[in-house]
Amino acid sequence: MSEHTTTEIIVGGAVLAAAVGFFIYAAQATGFERDTGSYELSASFRSIEGIGLGTDVRLAGVRIGSVTGVALNETTFRADTSFTVIDSVEIPDDSAIAISSEGLLGGSFVEIIPGGSPFALEDGGEIIDTQSSVSLITLLLRYVGGDGDGG
Fold it and tell me: Which pLDDT score is estimated for 34?
């Protein structure tokens, strides 16, 4: 084997490893995963700004599912959202759901705020108590425009 052939094999292996690593990262980032056993729930929001398919659903900061569907309800003009939750997590039927932000410049995620009911939501259940996303620009415009409680 010549020196060029060995170098080409090493570089080719490194490129292949990088491609596999990128594929795994992309699959995790988009929410693509094996079916580990989950059930589907739904909620209707006034605004889902920053939320899309594959967005994390979290409980106490831990990822327990992902958003699987988003559609405009043409009757109520609300965003109907469906999402999955892993089977091992039972969500009380009086729970709330909110769109939260990871920080000032971070992305958004769906947060489940558990209630105290002894009864759990079943597959196909709906969470009624929803809190929509808050636009930072809207808040700033209200404050600067004098509509806020700033004084």
Answer: 56
- Closest listed residue to residue 39, CA positions, set 58, 66, 60, 59: 66
- Best CA proximity match to 67, nearest among 98, 95, 107, 40: 40
Q: Where are the domains of the chain?
A: 1-30, 38-141
Q: Which distant-in-sequence residues (6+ apart) come within 8 Å of 66 by Cβ?
A: 31, 33, 54, 55, 56, 57, 83, 84
59-66, long-range: CB < 8 A, 24+ apart: 59/89, 59/91, 59/111, 59/112, 59/114, 64/89, 64/112, 65/38, 66/31, 66/33
Instruction: Return the amino acid letter for 74.
Output: E
**Global pTM?**
0.65
